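Q: Got a minute? One more chain.
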Amino acid sequence: MTMSVEASFQLPVGDGHCLWVQTLGQPGGEPVLVVHGGPGSGCSPRFAELYDPALQYVVLPDQRGAGRSTPVGGLGANTTVHLVADLETLRRHLGIARWRVTGGSWGATLAIAYAAAHPGAVIDVLLRSVFIPSRARVEAFFAGGPSLDALAAGLDQPDPAAARATALAWWQHEAAMSGASIPPSPDTPALDRLVLKYRLQAHYLRAGCFLGDGGFDAACARLAEARLPVTLIHGRDDRVCPPDNALTVHARLPGSRLVWAEGCGHDPFHPAMQAAWRAALRPCD
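A: Always. Here it is, folded:
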């Protein structure tokens, strides 16, 4: 039996940015790209649970400014156009002809943008809990909690304690909306990392993720024209990215397949979501 190999490397992508990239499995396995959410979250170590490194060559990059990429939280030259270009740079660097493109939440949005821009490099697209980057949907997420503009202002406070308090408020609201089990409150070093993450996320969200309704619609249209296989998996009880998102994107991508994860919110590790995800990820012929 072939053993899975784990490796990591740094990839300079210009503008002073350097991506941190982890790979799992064997380079000869079926290539699978993992596009993480956020924006700004970085790849979770638990993502390995969702893939099969015995059969797949899994590529997990942290996006510009996110996770272990440097500069951490860097906002300069950091837009969706840059992130799409980075993924293509990574594919070429690894010598991969075509790969399966997978992503969840914001990662699903970025996966659509990438596949639409580079359809010839894509085998198929697997999306979880897709996010639509409209102002109305972002405002709906923050309804009942602090507004995005107020949070962005708080994160930019020169007083570190004030910025940490804002990051904690954002984290608490996000945790309550996600439906996942809420972990213990972050300690000070973790809050400092959250400040950088949420500053980057605010940078994207306030700009409509540099797509907005029009740019996202255009990306869906280009992806539909490419006729690539697309699977959408969505939790019936998702409050972060409501189920209507999946219905909207499904309608914009004729021929796409929509799978509902019953009793599941936004948590990628919920048993129902994991089961649907692994079934959809069975190796292509």
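A: The first strand starts at residue 6 and ends at 14.
Q: Perfect, thanks.
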